[in-house]
Amino acid sequence: MWNDEHSPLISARRDALCPMEIARRASARFHTLAFALLASTLLLACRPQAPGRVPTGTSGQGTLVKGAAQPKQVRDAPYPAEPPIKLPEHAVPPRPVPDGPLVGKLTPLNPAIRVEKPRPLQAIEFSGYSNLDNPVPPVSTVGEISVAENGQTVMLTGNWFAGFSLDGGATFTYRNPTTIFPQVDGGFCCDQVVEYIPQFDLFVWLMQYGGTPNRIRIAAQRTEALRSSNGTAWTYWDFTSPTFGNGTLDYNDMSFGRSNLYWTTQNADGRVVVRLPIEELAAGTTVHFDYTAGTDALWSHVTHNAAAAVYWAGHVSNSQLRVFSMVDGDGFYSWRTVSINSWPNGTNTSLAPDGTDWMSFESWKHYVFGNALQGKNVWFSWLASSGTNFPQPHVQMVSVDTSAFTLTQQVQVWNPDFAFLDAFLSTNDQGEVAMDIAFGGPPYYPSNAVGVWGDFVVYYPRLSTRASDRWGDYNTSRRSGSLPNQWVAGGYVLDATGAIPHFIRFKRP
Which of 55, 219, 362, 398 is 20 to 30 A from 352 in CA distance terms? Predict the structure, then answer.
């Protein structure tokens, strides 16, 4: 359940945290007209913005709105299996990124990235790999695999299945989410994201439900209880779409820092980012959360490997980013414009060997996909088209200083012979940046690969043998929850039987 922002509980919490409210109360005490006018002016700035697109401009701030959600519990998967549902595709009109002033030379700034099959004495080592055959329900041909791991306990999700492993990812047992949780809003849909938070020993599972209105459901459980219940015992909280403004909640992501869980979703107002205390999740109590208005960083992911702040970004033009930030303890979020080198800003298209354009769903989309913290810098990545000195669609990556909000580095994941799509980024505790990425086009059917930035090679465990016209919105790489110098990742390939998910552990040799 959720509390409306105008409820007494929420109003009391907001007033307690708002210095402008202190000024208002002081004005009543002193009864001076000048002070009262000043205080009332400041109080206007204290009120949360109504959900909607935040103001644009080179910099600014928006007030966070507060809410609360009540816990519920499930165990032993007592519900009958329901057929999977699919949200109707949003009728989103194309919003191409505007062309800005030419900055730089539109040329690769690093060597081309190769793709290779794993082999001995390579730059990274696959320390674990397994295929997940015949998921129940069957995985969609748009896999969107997410992974969470604590040593021998691994959770892997996709559209619409969930898999649990008690032997480190060697084998998986399937769980149908519709049997674990009660159905609402027309039924369980598709998008799922999982995380493991080592400092709280907590698996967190984000699920999306259908209908209008709809909701995001977030469930949490500790490792031992997850193992002993075979993945069926959870405490969960529901966040319904009217809380956050207009439209259906969709295209979700999740991350965590030292104290807070962050999740983000898209509605008709824009990109909403939500923050809530991990302590409350771990305790299974009422969760008090803050959230932004709908920002114009459309479909952006939130920062992985965060610490005490989270970042997200959208394109002002193909030579400027609008970078948003939310710092723990602050009652507001901020945005700033960062200049970058220009990048090819045309139509994304790439043909598989059978002639299928596997990027047709992403034909105009250049949203900021990858997002990971590396020291005091945050990395962002997005899909750029072919053009000028880039023969194929590719991935642009920038590193932004989080103190000065200036560009520190810009590189590309590119190859003259085939395309790359959507690099999901994550750092290990050594500050190395890993990616889970898709590639395809002659001579490859779209497939999944992982690698570490700076090696100029990514590795695929197997290759697809067919294509569809949409690859998917994400496949994840994560810092290992048990060995933080390593990574775990989830991906899939397409063959004659459908989409085959896989789980990977990888590390430096």
Answer: 398
